Structure prediction request, 804 residues.
Amino acid sequence: MLNTSNVAHSILTEENDNYNSNNNNNNSLLLNDLSFHNDDIIINGSLHYAVYDTTLFDVLKVDPEDFASQITLMDLPVFKSITPDELISCNWSSKSKLEKAFHIVQFTRRFNQVNFWTQGELLRADILKNRIEILSHFIRVAKKLFDFNNINACMAVVMALQSAPIYRLQKTWMGLSKRDRTTFSNLKEFVSSNENWKRLRHHLTNTKLPCIPYLGIYLTDIIRIDTLHPHRGGLETNQRKNALNNICRIISEFQQSTYEFLKPIECVQNYLASVRYMEELQTFVEDQNFKQSLIIEPDDQNDSCSEKLQKNLEKSASFKIVHVDTSSISLHRRTLSDFNNSNYHSSSNKSATLPCRTSANKSLLDDSVLGDPVTEEPSSGNESCEEVILKAKEYIKTNNKHHHIIQGISLSLSSLSMKEPLDPYNDSLIPSNYNFQGSLERKCLLKNYKKPNITKWKKYWVAICEHLIFFHKQKSFLITLPIRLNRQTLIKNSDDLSIIQSTLSNINITLTETDRLYYRQNPSKCQSITDWLIVLSQRKNRNEIQLSDLTKGSMYKFKFENEAIANIWFQRLKEASTFKQKNSQLSENLIALD
Amino acid sequence: MDYAYVFKYIIIGDINVGKSCLLLQFTDKRFQSAHDCTIGVEFGSRIVNVAEKGVKLQIWDTAGQEQFRSIIRSYYRGAAGALLVYDITKRTTFDHLTMWINDLRNYSTSNMVIVLIGNKCDLSDRREVQKEEGEAFARDHGLIFIETSAKTAVNVEDAFIKTAREICNKIDDGVFDLTNEMCGIKIHHKLPNENPNTRRNSNPNQTSGC
Prediction:
């Protein structure tokens, strides 16, 4: 998803590291921040552009002129590398485009990258005021691009602002100042395709260098010439040759352009380059962008339903949170151990031991407690987790015998079709429906496009089940004390439901952080990681995996003790992120529960 | 030649279905013969006579710009008519129609008139899509259907003019909000030196706009 792609660091290459090692000045600091090994230093933006991180890059902090100049400097070499052969081949849209028209493809990629970056930046601003500011900012970027005579990028920005998801944001457009509106309407006129791009053609034939033209016009012209004078083997007709040569000559003249007067700004270029653009995902991103647009400014008539849907989802989310609350309190009644009694104690006291749970949504540090599916697109098919839990909850409601909510979760889990459980620690204590689980350290780098104020490594027991990951927090008791171990085994009762039976055993052990019992039995958070970006980083003796949810702007890092474990997790997380859900099967299973 | 309206059209469809060919055949009578092919501002437009009115058709050809996807989608919005083209000798181009239709429905104005064109009907010996299939698809999606040959000019005029006639009908029914430029229809303002009485009654003959 390109709109949000800048959330994620693109897969950062060694170049950053090389660069860092060569620079020990302030710049290296900002690049460190950009790099994968970012330690989340939060600095105030006192240095000009010094605070730089792709994850929370604020476009408003960069002057439009600097964006325009850097985009131009990035476009120029790509444009210059286009060869006449590529143009004449007419193969830039064909299957063999990468072999026969590589540089044209690269150049159109630049166009699309700028285009989707613009759309994405606007759509991720969910507050109207911000959005207006960003729109105005981009209009100025487009104007500057025009001033630099980078018509290609100017058009990319203007067309992005004219694209379906942005065009329909009426409230945003209404908020523009008169000056911005005039500027934009002039730009719009300029790039209009009316009368065969009259104004644009006029400009391009009369302009002085430097200029990076909009290539699309020439590409269409070449196709027209090719249609008019097809090349049927043998010698080319003179008309065809002349007409094509004419276009190649025009392009090669533009390729003489230099932009020596523009100074490179490394961090802005790095940021712009980090905006991910994948051609294969384009349709998907376009659809996502449109949905996002409907969310931030719902239509008055047609899309009131989508708004409603959104509200319903919110309701169900708060519902879920309540349900987690209950679970933490009710759990202890069922389990019979010292540890759980102590847990009961604290929870019944409503003391600070479980403050986060009772204070609902945002309390779980950076977690949103099962709340993440809230913003899930209704049609995306990702709501299955939520559905399952809701249905389980309903089931529990109607069956007073089993009103333990957390069991609802385990019930719903058991209803999912499971893969072979694989447990690296071979821990028989876990009633596992999970595909894979283990302990790790997690840090949140980004949440809803915002960097959390406090961010540090926290230990979790993490389990993967299909496309879902479950987080179990550490228990609140002191781990160094010998405790009575609560051994639990999983049996099946007459209703064919998995329940947890506890047996007591008096073993004195000291738990370490790789032990399952070091963590709470019940997950505090469940997230679908479908389509997340999973990146493994094993440099500088670190074994980390970065998980990025490009749609919602969340980013986490997992840390592992050694390479082997990190590798296994990487594979498993990858599998989970691409896991195909079988919704129909799922609902059948739920019915079977009743 | 005078005209009362300007209609904006777009031509879309898979690569190599003959989009440019159709346009050239329609707007440029010299298509078959060689000429210097200067691509000027009038390229892609032509005035036709529809329902006793002169109408200037301004056609946006997206050929060659398929990679600039965002541009193509924003074209949809300002067009009154769309020519959705497939190649009767290539099954895949027909199979992709649903995708194109969805795209159009999502991003165009709801009143857009769409004509489905099965192109290259001169190559009927290599036919992979039957005429009945095209008709059925058009019926299911509420489109006008026509088979053409851009090469031999069969039905090309018809495709463009049928679309224009349908748009005219819709204008008469008051479906379009002509004050909104985004509907793809512009009322042509008379030049000051023009006599308003002769404007409507002029007898437009169908000549090339070039």
Summary: Residues 9 and 93 of chain B are 20 Å apart (CA to CA). Helices of chain B lie at 19-27, 69-77, 91-95, 97-107, 131-141, 156-172, 196-201. The mean pLDDT of chain B is 79.
